[in-house]
Design a protein that fits this description.
single chain, alpha/beta, Rossmann fold, two-stranded antiparallel ribbon, 9 strands
Amino acid sequence: MAERFGPASAGGYDRGFGHVSREFIPALLRAARLAPGQRVLDVATGTGIAAEASVAAVGPSGHVVATDLFPAMLEKARERLGHLPNVSFAIADGQAPTLPDESFDAVLCAMGLMLFPDPARGLAEFRRVLRGGGWAAASVNTTLERAFATRVDAVIGRHAPEHAATAARYFSLGDAGRLRSLFAAAGFCEVETFTRGPAVPFASFDAYFAPIEEGQGPTGQAFAALPAEVWHVVCEEVRCQLEGGAGGPIEVEVELLFACGRR
């Protein structure tokens, strides 16, 4: 997993996929009830896209702590936000953050919880660091058919058995009932789930697939690690899913599942 979130992946993530990630951040912030003056923890911050939006939401009187397990990703977040006085950064495992009890008003986790080896433990930690009345919110993939880049991971997994388990994890929390139960079991109340699913337009399939072919982001790194003779096979399988042989402009159906709960 670490190599998928190393320097090459971090460097290309925003160029290849950042514009799609940003589409879903406002819904996550609303679910976490962000407000001016709050202290916010962004778990698995990646390149800091959700942390950046959180800074704007909490304003100069608030503070955002951005954490990630992977140093290369956190370095990109630091490059994005390090000039701001009310943002701090820490290398941390989302399942075991070394943070004080009841020290945050809100906890966010954008597209990271499904990759935790033990998401239940992660949610318990989210609740531990929340103050009474604070909210935690997370977003995850729903299904292969409504994934942006991780649909490619599923295809890669069919050709590279060592990647299959990682690909499956991307969709492991896509059932709303299961995610709701995990939040409730962690002790959250007023648990809510909902989906958001805009279609993302591209001028062509090649325009969609180019960042992956260039090795950008975690999916691009997984693609680059394949034997060269498999690259075309994977590309054509994904092309068939998205354009059905018609060519021309395409729309990629993307849907995320959100869950939130109050401490």
